[in-house]
Amino acid sequence: MTTTTIEQQAPQAAMQGGDILDLLRRRRMLVLVPFLVVLGVATVLSFVLPPKFQARATIEVVDRQLLDKFFQQVDFTLPHKPYLTTIADVIKSPSFLRDIIERLGITEGFNAADPLEKARLVQRVMDKTSVHLTEQTVGPDILELSYTGRDPAKVIAFINAVASKYKAYVLDTYKGEIARARRNLIARRETAKLSADTALADYENFQNNNDFQLIGDNVLTSRLNELARQREQIANEELREQGLVERLEHQRSGVTQTPAETVKRKQKRNPEYEAAVRVVNDAESALEDLRKRALDAHPDWSKLVRIVEAAKAKVAATPEMVDEERAIEDSPKFEDLDKGRRSTESELREVRARIVRLKDSITNLEGVTKAIPALTRQAWNLKNARDNSADTLKRLDGSLAAANGLWERVNAESGDFFRDLRMPVMEEAKTLEQSFPSTPIFAGVGAFVGLLLGGALALLAEFASSSYTSTAQLRRALPVPLLGEVVDIADIGTLAHREKRSRTWRWVLIVLAGIALLLHLAFFVPSMTGILPPDIFELMSRIYGGR
Predict the structure, then answer these.
(1) Which of 88, 380, 501, 546 makes an SS bond possible with 131, Cβ 3.0 to 4.6 Å?
(2) At what angle do helices 152-208 and 332-410 cross, to 10 degrees?
């Protein structure tokens, strides 16, 4: 080692590679002692600390999307996602784990008879239990369970018990939900069946009603066309009635004026008429003779004139022909006129009867055409009610069938909601490797921490020194040439001081290691736990997660 007595007047420059090596050579004890002590303590702890074993289970959870789709068919929703996403909270809870811990006799170094120790045990098991859920957008989710404990058989049994209890917990919850939903579906199905039967009966009764034949746009159009045709027909019949009435009046007048009987005669010349005509002819001849003889003033003129006039009057009053034979017969003309009258009256009665029937039909058609929209709405409502109730019943029948299938599914061994990808078996307990403590890891971490601690102490001692310890430092710090180097010759007092300081450091490290070893022995050995202060016990419990 080289040294000088010149005090530093300027800040030391950054250390270079050679300076670091020189520092390690000069202060090798400060680096070596912490390194060996920490490495030794870590290695001892790896053998002293009780071994711990870890068991893992991997469970595949059926795709939630498939389950949700299946549940929609059942017409109710099972809370599958909440049960899955809260799985860590459910499993890592004292109420869930306590009975498993008691049943398997897990102690992990705690006194289970002491309530406080038992609470620490449950907390420690909760901390050492890992639940990890890998959710996937498409496909099944993966559930990973792990637990670290001292007894490999109990660790494996614990993982299996946790997985089985959680499956049973989910299935029991599903059973309650499905049972409630099935009861609800059965009640709803009975109500829907009653509604469907009632709606079907109402629709069939309406179909059996004659008014049902009036429903429909085509029927309404035909009824309107029929109504227009009958109105036109009744107008024609009324015109025909008017013509028949006029013809009947004319025929009645002809019948009234025509005698019902005719007299059939066989006549001959009337002798009285012939005699009168001869008298007239004789008188006219006499008059003619007198006129010719210009005897207008003859006294017999006026007498002959009177005789002629009287004879003409008698001729006029005397029928020319007299009945030789006489018979009374029906008049053919009267019969024809009366027959035509009776035919006209009969036809008129038929026309009037048709008019009455047409008026009644028109009245019915007008009522029908007014009732068709209401009947159509009624038919549509009844048909819609029948179809809706039938669809509801069909949907509930499918839901109930699916619910029954789901009920059988959850009552199966696993319900097919979970699939074990990796479950530990008890035969693995004999070959299960400990996960803690690992001697290589402890030794590596101890070596690393010891080097860091030794390096830190060396750097601290180096920077705390106010003297130059090498010629390189002088050359970098002073702007003067270095003429020579004097080797440090330590006297007996200096050597004694150095030896004393080295022994002091060794004893300090040994005492610290002994205290650490004693604390660990007192923590991990149940019979020595009482000598630990409560604060230190809680601190070590947090560090190691229990004993």
Answers:
(1) 88
(2) 170
Helix (H, G, I), strand (E, B) or coil at 268: strand
**DSSP β-bridge partners for residue 148:** 54
Q: How many CB atoms lie within 10 A of CB 320?
A: 11
Q: What is the DSSP string of 121-145?
A: HHHHHHHHEEEEEE--SSS-EEEEE
Distance CA 351, CA 345 (A): 10
Closest CA to 201 of 395, 390, 398: 390
What residue type is assigned to position 21 of the chain? L
pTM of the model: 0.49
Q: How far is it, in rounded angstroms, from Cα 70 to Cα 409?
A: 12
Half-sphere exposure of 74 (CA within 13 A, CB side): 23
- Omega prior to 437 cis, within 30 of 0: yes
Domains in the chain: boundaries: 17-49+438-544, 52-190+397-430, 261-330
The residues with which 54 forms a beta bridge, in sequence order, are: 148
Distance CA 345, CA 210 (A): 38
* 29 C-beta neighbours (distance < 10 Å), count: 16
pLDDT per residue rounded down to tens, the chain (547 residues) = 344 434 433 334 445 555 666 666 666 777 788 888 888 888 777 777 777 888 899 988 775 555 566 566 555 555 556 656 677 788 888 888 899 999 888 888 788 888 888 888 888 889 889 988 887 776 677 889 999 888 888 899 999 999 888 888 877 877 787 788 788 888 888 999 999 999 998 888 887 775 666 555 566 677 778 878 888 888 888 888 888 888 888 877 877 777 766 656 666 667 777 777 788 788 878 777 777 665 555 667 677 777 878 877 877 777 766 666 555 666 677 777 778 888 888 888 888 888 888 888 888 777 767 767 777 777 788 889 999 999 988 888 888 887 787 778 777 765 567 788 888 888 887 777 777 777 778 778 888 888 888 888 877 776 766 565 666 666 666 666 766 666 665 667 777 777 877 788 778 878 887 887 777 777 777 666 667 776 677 667 766 655 5
Going through 283-393 in order, the beta strands assigned E by DSSP cover 321-330
Fold of the 52-190+397-430 domain: Bacterial polysaccharide co-polymerase-like (3.30.1890)
For residue 152, give Cα distances in angstroms to 99, 140, 341, 432.
Answer: 19, 30, 130, 7
CA distance 363 to 189: 48
Contact 109, 547 (CB under 8 A): yes
Q: Which residue has the tokens 């109710």?
A: 76
Residue 391, both tokens: 């669809």
CA dist list (Å): 156 to 142, 147, 396: 19, 8, 46
